[in-house]
């Protein structure tokens, strides 16, 4: 799944090439791509036609385009995009050949000669229209109002995050992937931040001191900003920006995907362990597992 840096790369591309444009026509080429819009393809297309797209926004792994209203009134509707495992939002010239897995085409009422395409090989992602949280100036879709702010959001509350960690009866990596606690962190960047912090993924959150949770947040922000600087992490060319360009942070990964390779810090062979239908990568020397609790 794409994580915060990959989704932010797409958001920045949309902000440059799609925002402020008025929709002329929408073609839904595969109904599964708008399955979360329960009224169906025709209603989705009709509600978007004639509406102007506002500034692209993101919270965690979700991004949305508010539909602008007249005057200072906050947006009342928004197009929510979830990329799933292979979704791409591409800005393409009209004459560009259709991608094999093109699902939705959005054309604009201007002379720029480009359109917005949603391409999704595995059809786990999609677009949908939603009401926004009343009075929210960013037009936050109500269906993701429960998603926590992400660590790159200026409004993220570090102290509240630490207090929540101490209250939870869970382990570190489970907490980092809990989108109601901190959003945008997925399997890749959790492993990377934990490696940098020398913390084991199974360490109980209640044992984390305030300085250690602050250090963990620092490393989460560092690794995400470094990934953003090179366009995110792209595997098999799935996660790309709106121009179709891949990121290359995968060349800089210190933990994820490095089983049996030497730890870049101490030289010990990195290990991989099955974890919640995923894998966790860690250094057995730098990231000591927690001691078993006494019976």
TrEMBL record:
A single GO molecular function term of this UniProt record: oxidized purine nucleobase lesion DNA N-glycosylase activity
This protein's UniProt keywords: DNA damage, DNA repair, DNA-binding, Glycosidase, Hydrolase, Lyase, Metal-binding, Multifunctional enzyme, Zinc, Zinc-finger
Domain FPG-type: 254-288
Protein origin, superkingdom: Bacteria
SMART domains documented for this protein: Fapy_DNA_glyco (SM00898), H2TH (SM01232)
Transmembrane parts of this sequence: none
Cofactor: Zn(2+)
A Pfam family this chain is assigned to: Fapy_DNA_glyco
InterPro entries: DNA_glyclase_Znf_dom_DNA_BS (IPR015887), FPG_cat (IPR012319), FPG_Glyclase (IPR020629), FPG_N (IPR035937), H2TH_FPG (IPR015886), Ribosomal_uS13-like_H2TH (IPR010979), Znf_DNA_glyclase/AP_lyase (IPR000214)
Active site per UniProt: 2 (schiff-base intermediate with dna), 3 (proton donor), 61 (proton donor), 278 (proton donor)
Catalytic activity: 2'-deoxyribonucleotide-(2'-deoxyribose 5'-phosphate)-2'-deoxyribonucleotide-DNA = a 3'-end 2'-deoxyribonucleotide-(2,3-dehydro-2,3-deoxyribose 5'-phosphate)-DNA + a 5'-end 5'-phospho-2'-deoxyribonucleoside-DNA + H(+); Hydrolysis of DNA containing ring-opened 7-methylguanine residues, releasing 2,6-diamino-4-hydroxy-5-(N-methyl)formamidopyrimidine
Residue sites binding DNA per the record: 101, 122, 168
E.C. no: 3.2.2.23, 4.2.99.18
Domain Formamidopyrimidine-DNA glycosylase catalytic stretches: 2-125
PROSITE patterns the UniProt entry points to: FPG_CAT (PS51068), ZF_FPG_1 (PS01242), ZF_FPG_2 (PS51066)
Cofactor note: Binds 1 zinc ion per subunit.
Subunit structure: Monomer.
PANTHER family recorded: FORMAMIDOPYRIMIDINE-DNA GLYCOSYLASE
Role played: Involved in base excision repair of DNA damaged by oxidation or by mutagenic agents. Acts as DNA glycosylase that recognizes and removes damaged bases. Has a preference for oxidized purines, such as 7,8-dihydro-8-oxoguanine (8-oxoG). Has AP (apurinic/apyrimidinic) lyase activity and introduces nicks in the DNA strand. Cleaves the DNA backbone by beta-delta elimination to generate a single-strand break at the site of the removed base with both 3'- and 5'-phosphates.
Family statement: Belongs to the FPG family.
Protein name per Swiss-Prot or TrEMBL: Formamidopyrimidine-DNA glycosylase
Source species: Streptomyces aureoversilis
Gene: mutM
